[in-house]
Write a structure and sequence with these properties.
Blueprint: H1 5-25, H2 31-38, E1 45-46, H3 47-54, H4 58-70, E2 74-78, E3 86-90, H5 92-115, H6 118-143
Antiparallel strand pairs: 1-3, 2-3
């Protein structure tokens, strides 16, 4: 099974996730918290949008958001227009941690970009576009 494409994708993702978690822990957050922070917009982001980005149900995200709120990283407010919609906003501490998370990601991406030639970068992106397209097709076939 070590010769399958998905083995290499998954094992690389696990290593990437481990590396980001180790780096994030140095700043008292996790990789998942960093990802959430990066995806919260200045005007606030609905909980449902964050759940979609993480691939979880809004109810499953609740515990993580509660933890982030206790750490002083976010604030949650009910939307005035629609009381069913909860929006998440960054606190000043959340902005500071988001900046660090972005820095970690950009630094890694710069290091990777330096190791790859331009044709390798183009091929990498082309291959991953094909992978994502195929995965989306498979998901749509299941949903239909």
């Amino acid at each position: 099974m070590k010769k399958t494409f998905d083995y290499h994708i998954k094992s690389t993702w696990h290593l990437l996730s481990k590396m980001y978690n180790l780096k994030a822990m140095q700043h008292d957050i996790s990789q998942v918290i960093g990802y959430v922070l990066i995806n919260i917009e200045k005007e606030g982001t609905p909980v449902s949008r964050l759940a979609d980005l993480l691939g979880v149900e809004s109810t499953s995200l609740s515990r993580l958001l509660k933890s982030m709120e206790k750490k002083g990283l976010i604030e949650r407010t009910t939307c005035e227009d629609d009381k069913r919609v909860m929006r998440v906003y960054l606190t000043s501490e959340g902005v500071r941690k988001r900046k660090k998370a972005r820095e970690i990601i950009l630094t890694f991406n710069e290091k990777l970009a330096q190791r790859l030639s331009e044709p390798e970068k183009e091929n990498f992106l082309k291959i991953f576009t094909h992978v994502k397209e195929l995965i989306q097709e498979e998901i749509e076939a299941i949903d239909n």
